[in-house]
Amino acid sequence: MATSWVNSAERIGSDLHLELTGPGGRRAALIRALREAVRSGRLAPGARLPPYRSLAADLGVARNTVAEAYAELVAEGWLTARQGSGTRVAERAEPLRPAAREPRKAPPRARGPRHDLRQGTPDASSFPRTAWLASYRRALQQAPNEVFGPGDPAGRIELREALTEYLARARGVRTEPGRIVICSGFAHALRLLFGGGVLRGPLAVEAYGLGFHREVLAAAGVRTVPLPLDEHGARVDRLGRERAVLLTPAHQFPTGGPLHAARRAAVIDWARARGGLVLEDDYDGEFRYDRKPVGAVQGLDPERVVHIGSVSKSLSPAVRLGWMVLPERYVDAVLAAKGDREAWASVLDQLSLADFVVSGAYDRHVRRMRQRYRGRRDRLVAALAEHAPHIEATGVAAGLHAVLRLPPGTEASAVKAAAWQGIALDGLAAFRHPDTDMAAGDGLVVGYATPSEHAYGPALEALCRALPPP
């Protein structure tokens, strides 16, 4: 152990530069100064410190001040104190020294695709930050105190009232605030309806659809029965003993096209005759380009349809907000499944969205994005006409994606070629129900909404290079 010791104010002040300044008084200042002297190595491990009386006299402070500072540093492990040995710097109080080795490098990030043409997400760079912030500020300023307590599981009344008006105007939905339950998105709605025991399977679904939704249903113990598709949408005439059916009637996912009017009427007749229920996934109903608006099936019979929507396509999946428009007989059961308090959807985000809708900012954003996505769609069609005229794009009258129809037997190689070009996309077969005997042919599902404006042109060039020759 080292035997050197500090025994004079001159050495303390000059060599160690103990400055007893700063908040908390002389005791706190002395503790900070001694810690820093040990930390920097100016007081080495084992160095002996002067007795209380000597250091107090040298520094011009009370003896109790030094005694209390020593005692605290001993308790913290910076110093040791033994009878007959005095107070010393603890041997384990190693000073900070520059690392002898190179700093550890962060592990390299996995490289993502250069071009993201997967379906399902909007252009993240187009999120209306300024308008959303204005709505958030207004909502926060006007929020009653109760907003900051436990939330209503039905959702904020301000949002449910705003949605009642908006959905009636934009989608032809007939409802009232008391029949709307706010959720965090479509998957959450399925978990509440089936995982919460409100509905039971089996459930009829379209033969091509989102696999993630089938996984959510399977996790809830629901068996899904595929319905074949044709150019008019789901073959609802093939409905069997199922008591509920899940459809994407505004724009069949992923093949495209609305459910024919005769089949809309037919599925409502089926629900009335069997006491059944239609689940309507209105996932991108706002985005149509070359056709008249197609209203929601819910408007035909509000007591036989659960209308489910969200802002994940129209605004952003980061805003975890959706809604269920329910027949009256299911409202209490859904609220019971959800619980006594709002545990999923931020109340402040609900109020912000309510203001965003009521102020007209939501309508303006949808109109702007409809024009932008229509331009994206047109550029895709033009690129195919120039570089791959043998490839047909279908389902392009609405939505955020198109299906590129490929020559038979070329889908797998086209997906692989796209990966070589740095493109992320899916083949049509990825959406096929495992139990269906229907085959929609070979194709690529190309999302044209995700890339930013400056990245979209290079993405189209890479896509055309990946397509199979005639």
Which key phrases capture this entry?
four-stranded antiparallel beta sheet, alpha/beta, 470 residues
Beta-strand share of residues = 5-15%
Helix amount, in percent? 25-40%
Radius of gyration: 34 Å
The major pleated sheet works out as: 7 strands, mixed
DSSP strand tally: 18
The stretches of 5 or more residues where confidence is low (pLDDT under 50) are 1-16
Strand order of the largest sheet: 5-13-12-11-10-6-7
Q: Residue-averaged pLDDT, rounded? A: 88
* Beginning-to-end CA distance, first to last residue: 85 Å
Structural class: alpha/beta
Number of helices: 14
The coarse overall form would be elongated
How would you portray this structure in words?
The chain has 470 residues and is an alpha/beta fold. Helix content is 38%, strand content 14%. It contains 14 helices and 18 strands. It has helices at 9-15, 25-40, 52-59, 63-76, 129-142, 157-171, 186-195, 211-219, 261-274, 331-338, 347-358, 361-387, 411-420, 453-466, and strands at residues 48-49, 79-82, 86-89, 115-116, 180-183, 203-206, 224-227, 229-230, 233-234, 244-247, 277-281, 305-310, 322-325, 392-394, 401-405, 423-424, 426-427, 443-447. The chain has a seven-stranded mixed sheet with strand order 5-13-12-11-10-6-7, with helices on both faces. The chain has a four-stranded antiparallel sheet with strand order 14-15-18-17, with helices on one face. The longest helix is centred in the last third of the chain and has 27 residues, at 361-387.
